[in-house]
């Protein structure tokens, strides 16, 4: 799929990123429910959805500014807010089910309404978001406020008419897909047939039809007969963007399996296994856990896929299984700090990654509210910071640099002064333009390239 | 020695994290439990492979530093040398819960069932090293890097809590965990749980027991 290249959209360093907006509370006291847990643009990029730990979904809409200008950059404003999931209690297991939204995925738009899937640990919901800007007035049997009129007082009949009203955006749950996952759901992915989707938990992947809620097909099951023999879990899964029969899933051991649903009903046997042999010089005490893949994303073209493990981003060519074609180090300076990161639990952080619209640049988050972009063509990378200090619109972001060891240059930050509580786990890139959404703990930053 | 302490510290930390994760909202996370048990297994392998230096007197309140590069070096050295199976171990006076979760996932090699043989070596109680209670093989391949000093290890003849104090918000619990851990590391599946030893205070025993039960349920529950 070819995406029209925009001028200056080539690379992370060719373009200058500017602050555009920041959403969320200003105070440092972060309410746990406000912690952003997922960010996703829709297919046109006009809508931007976020999910949080409190089970809410907030959708922002890009304002359609001056359409005459070809590079118009509208602001994103709140379009709709709704409570997607509530906390639940599993009485059989005596477990609370968190309402945190793990993933949001948009369906392509087919009519005036928008549809998205949102999921917590156990239940997936299909939401319809529709606009209402007219309301009927002039009923015969009802007053304007809804009270019923006494039929005996009706002497004439009139036809109700639609009159304009203030825009109201309504979100309603259209389907609820529940009770299909024993373990915690980590991924959902909509098939390119736009009729089915998959949901993945630690040990199983299920295939659903969007219209059918009372059953799903199990297509991957890696649960061992004896749980004591468990060695790996599924960490992420995604459908191929073009081939409706192909999907991949990543594991905690750093492998990715590509499966073809035409081969068999149960895709336990992979068609391809992508695995890079471990570099023995990097072997350490925590090697096993930092090789766990936290995210896998296909490129828009479908030719490549990207994986994120704790320290790096890897690009794989689907035609080559034995090693990635590109590897980018996100924060290699943390390799010597793994023990401390284990102590403060940071080593378990699950970073996501994303492609730009033309698949030429990839982006992922790091600590200290830093995020990184890697240009695949120029091989240059850039580190930027999401901070309220640079919050004047059109302020160009200054590249940041972390000093791993030795003498710290001016403007560099030493590893020891990084704030590991400020982490960027979720980022999203507009499908067509150079607009990115970066989520810090409870704030959403929107950056865009400098428009002249 | 320091590597051993570090390994023990990490094991204690891992147990604590496992226990803590059981209490979190949303229930036990399978992936997290698996990762914790992997680290614990690595730590235990490291611990078992490290040589005990009994004639180095135990210094209480040794500062426990993160020593990743050294761990790394040691791991490499250990990977080079063979891990000889221990040929003796003292009977542990501490109750053994053999059902603990992390052990369920380890390879049998480091903790193969051994016949309980009385060590032929004379035990010197004056040089007891509490940190290695009930564990040490008397004949071990030497590790390189000068981490241990020569002679074969000596096994303490009675259980002593490791003097190295864990730092943190729950020093008592950490102490209990460490004490527990010394017993847990005595990988003798044949040893049935016995009555708690006199040296262990009863109140301290209880939380540890429930912790173990929690651990048991933690991974096997599914």
Automatic annotation (TrEMBL), chain A:
GO terms for cellular component: protein phosphatase type 2A complex. GO terms for molecular function: protein phosphatase regulator activity. Keywords: Repeat, WD repeat. The keyword Electron transport does not apply. The keyword DNA repair does not apply. Belongs to the phosphatase 2A regulatory subunit B family. This is Serine/threonine-protein phosphatase 2A 55 kDa regulatory subunit B. It comes from Suricata suricatta. The gene is PPP2R2A.
TrEMBL record, chain B:
Residues 96-106 have a biased composition (Basic and acidic residues). Residues 125-136 have a biased composition (Low complexity). It holds the Pfam family IER. Residues 77-172 are annotated as: Disordered. Belongs to the IER family. This is Immediate early response 2. It comes from Suricata suricatta. The gene is IER2.
